[in-house]
Amino acid sequence: MVPEGVVYIPIRLAGLDLSINSNIVWIFVASALLLLFLLGSSRKLRLRRIGPLQNVLEYTVEFVEKQIIEPAELDGKAWTPFFLSLFLYVLFNDLIGIIPGTHATTSNINATGALALLVFFIGNGLRMWRKGIGGFAKSLIPEGVSGPLLVLMFPIEVISQLLKPFSLAIRLFANMTGDHLLLVTIIGFIMLFQNIAVSIVSIGGAVVVILFEIFIDFIQAYVFAFLSAMLVSECLEEMPEPVRTT
Amino acid sequence: MNSANLFGAYIGSGIAIGLAALGGGIGIGILMAKVFESMARQPEVLAKMRPLMFIGIAFIEAIVLYALVIAILLVTKQA
């Protein structure tokens, strides 16, 4: 759907195609911007009369703690760095799509699939590690069912657990690709009709679509992080304890 | 592909995204109607409700976008 991009450095490693193409270069750019933002805003932290960058950083961390970690009832001290990184990584990779001439790096199913698989393996790996293989199988059983209902519900439960990373990946990927396709279509009307009035309306529409796309970037980054937190919390299945964030 | 399959693919992709948009529009409309109604009754719960509203919208939009992916796959003749 969205073209793969120019391959800069072809790398083949044990039969896998790990070449650096333009999508990966933009992921590096987004990661560099993220590092710049985080390192630049956490230097010389002050208690009073804080500067604008530190304000933004504090707001972001508090947002992640209150809206992502607390609803999922996870241990804040352990999980806040991971979900903060995940949220900001997805956000910066989505927002790269604003730069003209490139598309959001998360509009590639491989990028979102990798993130979803990461969250899936972390959640289930921890569940398998803490409870053992037997306990892992036991924890897949939904509570309070037994007998023939169990035989019916166990495959459904397994399939629904396996489908969660898929839906995470496809949700983010399709949102980014769809927004970009909409923009391309609206600008394509100029080529199609070749009319002054259509061009003016088209460019106005394109501006509105870009603003909407920025809004959707924030929302989809939040939803990705929130649903990953729900997945991990469901995998760990701890008793709800108060969130220790200090 | 011969022309009969192409014809079916194009019609199928149009129907797919049309029905998905119909369902998604109704779903989001019901969700927002309930949000506005509860905001009118009790304005102070809006702050707690706003993240949940966005998550609801994202779930419904995800389903619509699954159908969009299928529609695009049909049009580009890969499914």
Give an account of the 3D structure.
The complex is a heterodimer of chains A (246) and B (79). By secondary structure, chain A is mainly alpha-helical. Chain A has one domain. Chain A is 73% helix and 4% strand. Chain A contains 6 helices and 4 strands; from the N terminus they run ββββαααααα. In chain A, 26% of the residues are buried. Chain B has one domain: F1F0 ATP synthase subunit C (F1FO ATP Synthase). The N and C termini of chain B lie close together (12 Å). In chain B, helix 1 packs antiparallel against helix 2. Chain B is an all-alpha fold and 79 residues long. The mean pLDDT of chain B is 88. At the A-B interface, helix 5 and helix 6 of A face helix 2 of B.
Summarize the structure.
With 246 residues, chain A is mostly helical.
Strand content of chain B: under 5%
Regarding quaternary structure, what we see is heterodimer
Count the strands of chain B?
0
User: H/E series of chain A, N to C?
Assistant: EEEEHHHHHH
**Largest interface, chains and sizes:** A-B, 15 and 13 residues
Strand order of the largest sheet of chain A: 1-4
By CATH reckoning, the class of chain B would read Mainly Alpha
Give me the CATH fold name of chain B.
Answer: F1FO ATP Synthase
Mean pLDDT across all amino acids of chain A? 85
What is the beta-strand fraction of chain A?
under 5%
Number of domains of chain B: 1
> Which radius of gyration of chain A do the C-alpha atoms yield?
22 Å
Helix content of chain B: over 70%
User: What overall geometry of chain B do the principal axes of the alpha carbons give?
Assistant: elongated
Question: What structural class results from the helix and strand content of chain B?
Answer: mainly alpha
- Average pLDDT of chain B works out at 88
